[in-house]
Amino acid sequence: MAQCNGCLKDNTKGFCSSCETILFYRSKVSPQLKFNWEDISKRIDGQPMGFSISGVQRKGFIGKPRGIELIPKMDIDEKSQYIIKPMLSRFNLPDQSPANEHVTMQIAKQLFSIKIAECAFMSFANGTPAYITKRFDYSGNREKLNQEDFVSVLKAADKYASKTYQDIGEWLSPLNRVDFLRILIFNFLSGNGDVHLKNISLLETTDGDMMLSPSYDLMNTKIHLTDNLLALNLFGEMEQTNLPLGEKYCYKREDFIEFGKRLKIKETIIKKIIDPFDNKEDEILIMVDKSFLSDDAKKLYKNNVVENYKLFRQSKRVVS
After folding, report:
1. Which of 105, 204, 217, 240 is deepest in the core (most CB within 10 A)?
2. Is the overall model pTM greater than 0.85, yes or no?
3. Can you name the residues that pair with 10 across neighbouring β-strands?
4. What is the pLDDT of residues 284-310, one digit of tens each?
């Protein structure tokens, strides 16, 4: 069964009309690009290095200056409109990373109403998979909006500095604290262990306020490597950094309730945020099955989600 390369709508070849509007300004764009990653990478000076998923994810910029074609090289005055990522260059199942990020972003948007950077699963001219995401740091009239990640906001030494999610949450406005709690629960349940300080940002609104940006770089990292349940501690005094070497703190529902309380979110609102997650496990698994992941990757993704839900529903603190 064909699925929309944007929203995964059934019985759709390429992009549905809604995704054409959201992603491509109503243009009919083919999910197969007419260029390869090498057409972009040869203009990139060096490659990012590191041990996290994001540390080795290559990124390029593409545009759509006219007509219906996406192109890797814009005119000198043309601002890039999309970020494009090829498959990972290493780790387990590297060719599955574009489909992984795509379905995780769609699950966040469709099942949990998390605002995301709009995205699509595509392929290069040679058939290798690609992930594209529409840039959100430009206004409707193409003026650049200020975006600042939490390495900068918290004046941290690096993206894994000794900061916690509580440090981030306490900085946010009351409304954004509610959104942030929902995002953290989603990342835990979906197996994303790479939400570090650079993957959480503030974005300038048209009114000049700095608010939590749409979510980006969401994926089930456990498909590709063994990492922590979350990239940072929720609360520094309760977690893995204070445990004996080799032991790992396992989160549960009560941890996120406590997190919400520390951010001064009303208990009735915390309940409204957390309760819907309990009813969405099967829907997550269904969306994974509809995705562009391979059968092996789907199995790993679903097993990880099931395991994380078991941890989430435990009544007692668990150390493994």
Report:
1. 105
2. yes
3. 3
4. 999 999 999 999 999 999 999 999 999
